[in-house]
Amino acid sequence: MSLAQALLDAEGIEAGYGAAVGSGEGASQVLFGIDLSIRAGEVVTLLGRNGMGKSTTIKTLIGALPLHRGRIRFGETTVAAAQAGGPRQALRPDAIARLGVAIVPEGRQCFPNLTVEEHLIAFADTRNDQREAWDLGKLYALFPRLRERKHHMGNQLSGGEQQMLAIARALSTNPRLLILDEATEGLAPVIREEIWKCLRQLKDLGQTILVVDKYIERLLDLADRHLVLERGRVVWQGDSAALRADRSVWQAYLGV
Ligand SMILES: Nc1ncnc2c1ncn2[C@@H]1O[C@H](COP(=O)(O)OP(=O)(O)OP(=O)(O)O)[C@@H](O)[C@H]1O
């Protein structure tokens, strides 16, 4: 993919937990040179069995984990760059968020003492992007349930409603890239379907999305491209038709 076309471009990223790679005790490298590019308007998935590095990749992209080696560019901005033994440059997570990267984390993280509407107002970013900005009316049109619950506190919501609120809250920042990490984890099937429907609507609106989820069959209908991770490396990538057709990928890397 031409780098100029990509909204997000990560090259050779290495990261992990503990101290910087190679610096001694406690260091644990998880990512071993991930390349990942996403064009504006694309929906891309990160797939792979448990513990293969999907969440670690996301944490590195949003600046929550330091980059040990590689380069991450978002739009026109280099958000992180590091060479072995060389200089490191990195924006803080809040600066990366302000560039237009919003994450819907695992576990939703709603505030128990804010109402639904307060969640949606408190984080809103009214700077206008090229696309039309999200406002309360549009968010409630996407999630009618949240309109019905707008005066309820975060801790009075069902798991599904909390998840919808987490997505709506992320959208209220008008992100250029929306990242969902296991957003349908632990939800009832009917609620999961509502979330998928919403993601489909977002895609049709041109929202760029990076998604990690276990329900691969549903992602095939939604996403443009998929990357499969195995022990911190990209071992396969392609579009939905290619993934559907290649059962060996499913057997080798997706535990299906
Ligand atoms: N906070 C942490 N400290 C140390 N090691 C961690 C931490 N979080 C994850 N790991 C390790 O990093 C590796 C990759 O984990 P990661 O969470 O990125 O996997 P994943 O592909 O997202 O899978 P899952 O669906 O299980 O979250 C695993 O070996 C995991 O044990």
TrEMBL record:
Entry keyword Transport: yes
Gene3D superfamilies: P-loop containing nucleotide triphosphate hydrolases (3.40.50.300)
Record has Nucleotide-binding as a keyword: yes
Every ABC transporter domain range: 8-256
Biological-process GO terms, alphabetical: L-amino acid transport
InterPro entries registered for this protein in UniProt: AAA+_ATPase (IPR003593), ABC_transporter-like_ATP-bd (IPR003439), ABC_transporter-like_CS (IPR017871), BCAA_Transport_ATP-bd_LivF (IPR052156), P-loop_NTPase (IPR027417)
Cited PROSITE patterns: ABC_TRANSPORTER_1, ABC_TRANSPORTER_2
Pfam family, one: ABC_tran
GO MF term (any one): ATP binding
Keywords annotated in UniProt: Amino-acid transport, ATP-binding, Cell membrane, Membrane, Nucleotide-binding, Transport
Protein family membership: Belongs to the ABC transporter superfamily.
Protein name: ABC transporter ATP-binding protein
Taxonomic classification: Bacteria, Pseudomonadati, Pseudomonadota, Betaproteobacteria, Burkholderiales
